[in-house]
Amino acid sequence: MEWASHDVETDRGLRIEVKASGYLQAWDQQGPSDIRFSGLRARFWTPDGGYAPAASYNADVYVFAVETAREPALYDPLDTAQWDFYVLPRAALEELAAVSLGLNTVRKAAGPPVTFAGLGDRIRAAALAEGPTTGTGPATPPTAVADPGIHQPRQPTTLLP
After folding, report:
1. What is the pTM (predicted TM-score) of this model?
2. What is the 3-state secondary structure (H, E, C) of the chain?
3. Residue 3: which pLDDT band, with cuts at 50, 70 and 90?
4. From the CB of residue 85, how many other CB atoms can be counted at a distance below 10 Å?
5. For 55-88, what is each residue's pLDDT tens digit?
6. Which residue among 54, 110, 128, 161 is buried most deeply as judged by most CB within 10 Å?
């Protein structure tokens, strides 16, 4: 569901939020963009309770994806070799208490980037650091969505073996 409180849910209930940015944009630029990730906290919505009274971190794991191309002639967003991925458990974002993060802060908190091939392992490691995905923190129930017009439960996605 495009308006759910997180982007991906695994068949085991792990909720993943993906934030993407890049140095190049579709519009004319004077230079590369500063990398910033926003919208880390949001008010979730459920059919039974409506909107939550306060914004919260609504995923168990956050993936920060950076398209690294800096030359328009080389830009290919479908080339996974051009992407760096940084992964943080929800607890790390709660500790930072951030609504948005710049790339330097993400790097300090997450450590070195991982390639697409290593992303699944890094997500699993962050999930283990986060602990169980049920009954923890202000996490959103699997049926929560950000748009009141969508009432069906999320379909699990097999992302990780």
Report:
1. 0.77
2. CCCECCCEEECCCCEEEEEEEECCCCCCCCCCCCCEECCCCECCEECCCEECCCCECCCCEEEEEEECCCCHHHCCCCCHHHEEEEEEEHHHHHHHCCCCEEHHHHHHHHCCCECHHHHHHHHHHHHHHHCCCCCCCCCCCCCCECCCCCCCCCCCECCCC
3. low
4. 20
5. 889 899 999 999 999 999 999 999 999 999 999 9
6. 110
* Res 9 pLDDT > 60: yes
Q: Which amino acid is at 150?
A: I
* Residues near 33 by beta carbon (within 8 Å), at least 6 away in sequence: 21, 22, 23, 24, 25
Report the distance separating Cα 127 and Cα 87, nearest Å: 10
Tokens (6 digits) for 123: 């997500």
